[in-house]
Amino acid sequence: MNAAIIGSTGLVGQALLKALLASGQYQRIWLVGRRSPEISDSGDTTVTVSQCELNDIGELSPPFHIDHCYSSLGTTLKQAGSQAQFIAVDKTAVLAFVQLCKAKVNLVITALGANPDSRVFYNRIKGETEQALASYCRQHQCKLVLFQPSLLLGARPHSRKLEDLGQTIMPHLRAVMVGKLRQYQPIEADIVAKSMLLHSQLLLNKPISTVSNLDMLALRGS
Hints:
This protein has seven helices and nine strands. The chain is an alpha/beta fold.
């Protein structure tokens, strides 16, 4: 099988690429992004990298047939610089990549709280992205798995001040984040990556599935 990843230089993307290479599940992996990730050992997997600006994704052509399409692409409003640029990354580029790959299974990270009707801009755009992806996958009869993590833990290649602060504080609050609060517990990037790989291997009964933060937290220690 062959896979494609967008966002492979990000926090989850790095862990995801490492997991996919270690799994031996894919003969070829296509990476798309503005930067090329560091790959220490690709084993028997052939890795092809296409560097491009995100608004040029539609001009690319997959170098081979894609079975599984992975998106770990995401930014913040501060990094994007404007709401329009945030939408261009977290919604437009993600959808364009899925459409480009034409894969039978699409595995996409959005966020806990994603809701197209939310008053919170971030959550609303994440929800609109899920909505657009679901519409595309229904129309083209391909499968979609949406992953909704809470605050991501791990060493980012680029600092995000608020998230860095959250990474320092939130892990110490896990002991009191029980019951209904457990769904908001921060989660390690490598666990999200592990969940994505796991669900790519499952026989998916539903055309569109959502993997909650709680679902992914259950993989801790497994």
